[in-house]
Amino acid sequence: MKPLRLKNCQRDIQASRDAAGVPHLQAANWLDAVYGLGFLHAIDRGTQMLFSRSVAQGTAAADISGSSELLETDHFFRRLGLGRLGESEAEALSENTREQLQAYCQGVNDGIAGVGRTLPIWATGFQITPWQPSSVLLVGQLLSFGGLAVSQMQNERLLIDLIHAGASEEGLKELFTPHLDDVDFELLRQVKMASQLSDDALEVLIDLPRLAGSNAWAVRPQRSASGGAMLASDPHLEINRLPAIWYEAVVRYGDRYVMGATLPGCPLFAVARTERLAWGVTYMKGDTVDFFVEDCRRTDDGVWQYRREQEWEDFTVREEIIQRKGGASETLLAYENPQGVLDSNPDERGPGYHLSIAWTGNNAGSGAAIASWLDVLSAEDAAAGMEIVRECTQPTLCWVFADREGHIGLQSCGRFPIRGGGHTGLTPIPAWDPANHWQGFHPTSILPRIYDPPEGFVATANENINPPGGPMFCTQILPGYRKRRIDERLQQLDHATLNDMQSLQYDLISLQASDLVALFLPHLPEGKLKERLSGWNFSFHPTSQEAPLFQSLYRNVLVEIFGHEEGIGWRRMVYLCSRAGFSGMVVAAIDRLLHQEKSCWWRVRDKGSMIHDAALRVDADAKITWADVNYFHFTDRYFGSHQVGRLFGFNSRQYPMPGHHATPFQGHVLQTAKRESTFAPSYHFVTDLSTDWAATNMPGGPSESRFSRYYNIDVPRWFSGEYKKLHGQPEPDSPPA
Asked: Which residue positions are annotated as catalytic (predicted)?
């Protein structure tokens, strides 16, 4: 262990780094410990925190760079009012929670003062202001909306775009049944659509902690070789932009400890364990954001109004001045009412139907979520932890727990609107009918939960978690390939070990491929394609030559069946199926439909003949491997896209990405003209509650400095599947897990 020099530290704490650079913090009590965590975040990830806060509060174009994409994201977040409730929410926190946040913020500010101006701070001319409790809440808002709810919003907007573009009404209704059964297609085609976010601006959002998919499971003692409960968790995010999203830490205070993945800017442990309890989280994919259709008009004196039944009311107009580094400031007018905020300025598109956006996180009380993250650290067992996190208002998550006594559980959380008129929330509905408005929020007592299931394990992987006959918390249903594979493997393990848990986290078998190859084979022409896919084990290992063959066939089938101009259109279909991890709602709906015998999509042409014709366009002699098509480069999130970054080696060599969107190791890469985006395990964590250690690895390291040996120190472990040990109790250095 290497002691850390804590310049400007104002409390009695000690810190050191292990061989992997993970900081180990020792404090007398929790308030000193949370101060120390803030201090460590500041010295290792200060730039990441400060830049994230600027993005969240919509001042990035003034603080960081006057680039067009940052200006666009400033407009986006300021229109939505992401940071408007920060101060009032901080004031509304309990005294206990506020005391902890103040200690954390003191640690952040003392750490930043001790470090001084980092290279990115100096290069951008960024002006540092103190970290405050409202800053913590703002980073939480950024995670909840920019990293999660925005993906729901973008998929809902994608559906509106398909309707606007004239895609087959009958075909879309069948594809997304029953969500579109009562949708007024003609009304939606009349809506004046705001411009979509540009690719550059979307990539700023992708750069946020965005749980595109994750895995977590727990095993009871009767299925464990050690006799202790075990937990495994691996949240999936973009992983090719360094520094890594997560910051590992081991924190000891008094006779207690907590260790795992923390989020710089917040005193929370997303995936972690204490001496009594372990937890991991996955994105529930809960629908907490809705579009409404507003009927708008402008009065003779220039006032914009919205209709409620036959009456007209004035919008509340909020004026936002957006500064731009090196350029003139811009004025944004946000038009609001109790149902939401218009997605554009009606002056630019004129009277008529406009979309408005509503998000539950913009309601009072959302800031209290941080209390759940703090309180769970002191939970004594799984049942207590589940009760605490059930009240977490945002983001929508599935928490998996395992405790020292052998209990396991799953608890979902989030604030879900009670939607009026029986609507699901997937498509916009008229706001002029008060019956369509939100009618409050569902009680947390009805949120899905599982405790000590008889099968001896519990797992979640972004599957459909809607209760039978209950509210539709999730509207963008994924097919559950990863969940099925995890359940399948856990069912086979009567005496599971940590090595089994690690192997499952690196599992590359696709049940999507297994299902669809069985569907495709009877219709394939005799020859090499059929022979090669018949003998494939459905692994998306980088060396596999059948994986790219299947992917080529799959995309050709989708374009052949759904890409005609009376359907979705071939250009849009190519776009969608090349972004399977990003437009999962559409691809998942298509996968379900492909297994049906009858459909309007193959009413004119037989499904089997279309699969046959698609196969004729596949090069069955191709010898390329999955690594040849599914690869990526690590790059620095501050300098990687700039000439100075390329000059000083901020971009890595090409790496193969194992897996794809339907394998437990979700390795999805999106190649665009300007950059690569990835979704993959951002942290691997497994632990046995009969011990006091955890095995981990991550695609990165503790430091945000490209010139630090701890910048990407864990990357070789992440690729090889090797795990390191984190010890809750002080122990000497030990060999890999």
From this structure: 214
- CA pair distance 275, 677, nearest whole angstrom: 37
pTM to 2 decimals? 0.95
226-243: buried (b, 16+ CB within 10 Å) or exposed (e) per residue?
eebbbbbbbbbbbbbbbb
Closest CA to 103 of 476, 374, 462, 325: 374
CA nearest neighbour of 557 among 520, 512, 525: 520
Dist. CA 573–CA 561, nearest whole Å:
10
Place of tokens 């900081």: 23
Peptide bond into 548 cis (omega under 30): no
Structure tokens at 60: 């990035």
Q: Which two structure tokens, joined as six digits, stand for 423?
A: 């609507």
Instruction: Spell out the residues 6+ positions from residue 601 whose beta carbon is closer than 8 angstroms to its own.
Output: 171, 174, 175, 561, 562, 567, 593, 607
User: Is 44 among the annotated ligand-binding positions?
Assistant: no
d(CA 290, CA 292): 7
Per-residue H/E/C for 382-434: HHHHHHHHCCCCCCCEEEEEEECCCCEEEEEECCCEEEHHHCCCCCCEECCCH
Ranges under pLDDT 50 in the chain = 206-207, 209, 581-582, 734-735
pLDDT reported for residue 147: 65
Q: How far is CA 721 from CA 145, 301, 496, 498, 658, in A?
A: 32, 67, 18, 13, 11
Domains, the chain: 149-205+288-362 (2.30.120.10), 511-628 (1.10.1400)
The pLDDT, as a whole number, for residue 734 is 47
CB 503 within 8 A of CB 481: no
State both tokens at 387: 């009760």
Tokens representing 250? 């081991």
Looking at residue 224, what is its pLDDT? 98
Query: Sign of dihedral through CA atoms 534, 481, 217, 681?
Result: positive
Q: How far from the centroid of its chain's Cα atoms is residue 298's Cα?
A: 39
Q: Give the CB-side neighbour count of residue 279, counting CA atoms within 13 A.
A: 31
- pLDDT tens-place string over residues 245-301: 999 999 999 999 999 999 999 999 999 999 999 999 999 989 999 999 999 999 999
End-to-end CA distance of the chain: 18
Cβ 237 vs Cβ 682: under 8 Å: yes
| The length of the chain, given as a count of residues | 737
Peptide bond into 395 cis (omega under 30): yes
Buried b (16+ CB within 10 A) or exposed e, 680-719: bbbbbbbbbbebbbbbbbbbbbbbbbbeeebbbbbbebbe
For the purposes of burial, counting CB atoms within 10 Å of the CB of 443, is it exposed (0-12), middle (13-18) or buried (19 or more)? Answer: exposed
Please report which residue ranges of 508-647 form alpha helices under DSSP H: 511-520, 528-534, 546-562, 570-577, 584-594, 607-615, 626-629, 643-647
Please tell me the distance from the alpha carbon of residue 174 to that of residue 169, in angstroms, as a whole number: 9
Asked whether residue 287 is marked as a ligand-binding residue, the answer is yes
Alpha-carbon radius of gyration of the chain: 25
Q: Is 676 assigned to a binding site? A: no
Query: Is 207 labelled as part of a ligand binding site?
Result: no
Q: How many CA atoms lie within 13 A of 632 on its CB side?
A: 25
Cα–Cα separations (whole angstroms), residue 621 to 544, 549, 558, 617, 630: 14, 9, 21, 12, 19
**Distance between CA atoms of 233 and 282, rounded to whole angstroms?**
8
The pLDDT of residue 572 is 79
SS3 652: coil
Those residues whose C-beta lies under 8 Å from the C-beta of residue 464, and which sit 6 or more positions away, are: 474, 477, 478, 480
Helix, strand, coil share (%) of the chain residues, nearest 5? 35, 25, 40
Identify whether the C-beta of residue 315 lies closer than 8 Å to the C-beta of residue 302.
no
Which residues carry out catalysis? 214
